[in-house]
Amino acid sequence: MPVAQTPAVCTIFQSDEIKKRILGRINFAELIQLQQTSKQFGMFVEDEIWRTVDEKHYALKNFEKLAEKNARKIEVLTLDGNFKHFSKEFVEIMFQKMEKLESIIIKNFYDAKKFNHIIESLSAQPDSKLKKIEINYVNNKQEYEKTQLSISKLSQLKNLKNFSIADTHVEQKEITLMIKKLESPNIEELTIISGSYIEKELYQIIQNKYSKSLKILELRKVSQETMEDFEKLVKSLINLEKLYLSEMVTSFGTQILSSVLPSDLKKLNTLQINRHRYKNQFNMFLNHNWSSIKILVLNGCVLSQETSDIISTQFQSVDVLDLVELESRPEDYKTILESIGHNLKVLQLVAPRFAISEAWPQKIIFNKLKKISIIGTDLNPVIISSIFEKNNILEELTLESLFLNNPEKLLKQLESLKAQKQIDSSCLKKIELFNIPWLTGKNLRQIIDSLNINIKNIYIEECDITTEEIRILSEAFPLINLSLEIKQFDEYASNEDEDTFDYSQMDQNKLNMYDGNQDYQKPTGGWQNNMDFNNAYPIKNNENKRNGYDCSKEADDGYFSDPVNDVD
Predict the structure, then answer these.
(1) What domains, with CATH codes, occur in the chain?
(2) Does the pLDDT of residue 38 top 70, yes or no?
(3) pTM score, two decimals?
(4) Region Disordered: what ranges (predicted)?
């Protein structure tokens, strides 16, 4: 009896939680192949295939027919206008059938009538269980079309908890009207990223309706004229946990959130400030004992000596720190690292305006550091010695776009540190290497030899190392899962962003095996090895690194922050 048909396996997969945990780790192409193995096992896999529907599904043969057939299984849906033309009939049928739908992403639509029809069809379901809506990159490119983008009918959704609208041409008054009429009593997450200023009325509406329920708030384009209303709103959010701010439009010398105190936001654990052009404007807000804040992200801001001094004294409890493309001096970085480095569990340093080695403290001990990412700068033996100090607990190392004049010299220094037992990498489990053109099989071998004690995974992307070199290393280190991202996207995509990859170019021989009605007489396919289809469509979480920051989840300890998309 094949393993997949044994009663024990079927019993295990009858638990929805266990099924999600196991099958959720398998990528889409492999799920399609697993679905062929047996009738009993195939039913469980099919549920997982259709639990979350996104761009990968569009490449399936007879996608719309299959989607309609499996609509009642769908919990998360992405409608991406860049990849698929969705007919009116298909949209209406799907929304009528998707009784389990809890989350939807609507993005890349450039026709107001099509977009408005989707919104109307979505809003027309009286018993909708929908909890989360994301609307991204929607505008009306039809110059002859005077129809306005409309979202006000979404106000009929009574179970909505998370609403996000970003980079659209939906007018601010339409957003204000929708939230004003919204029947849901408990919005917990709200994102408004717009090219125009947020209306004064909207702050008052949010404060009146959701001051107790709102846990996550992300705003862009707060104007000088509405700053007082914005401040009143923030002060009222007694259960706020995460605050993301971008491009506050103020005059020089204005203090932002100056009256907001830690006692107002007792539950605030995450603060992210993006792209603020004036220095010191948050200093009055920051200059309090923010012991509740565990995650701090500064992205594209001016970091002055005064601000760095405040952070080093008032943010002693921070254990996830991202410093991204800041305008500052090396001394300002050094002040912060020296002060709070001992408490950090996750550290990401991205593209400083100087070599990070200039800002690195001579003596710093990372007692708690589990993950570090160094991106767009240099690396030297002092930094390596610091992060691999004896008794360290570092588990993950990410290096991207390293600027090294002499990589061979650094690798020899690494080998020397290892030989002299000046570094301890016993806890290191994962290495990620991105966009390192000098990385060869020989160089990677040196890195592995120097750092490997308990390494389980090494992931490589956008490097010139070959598949043959990876094969040889895989044989030499059989206990390490070596994954190479093959530069296969370049044939089909205009850039390297997976969001624009044409999934219609996916291997149809693999995808066309699935038609949703298998006879199961002959199991086909099998587990893919890491050098095959899995590497063309890897499961990874590095998209936000390309945007400049990535507050990654610390799975063991639960430290995380929700990545916030770049707002350009």
Answers:
(1) 54-174 (no CATH), 366-483 (3.80.10.10)
(2) no
(3) 0.81
(4) 544-568
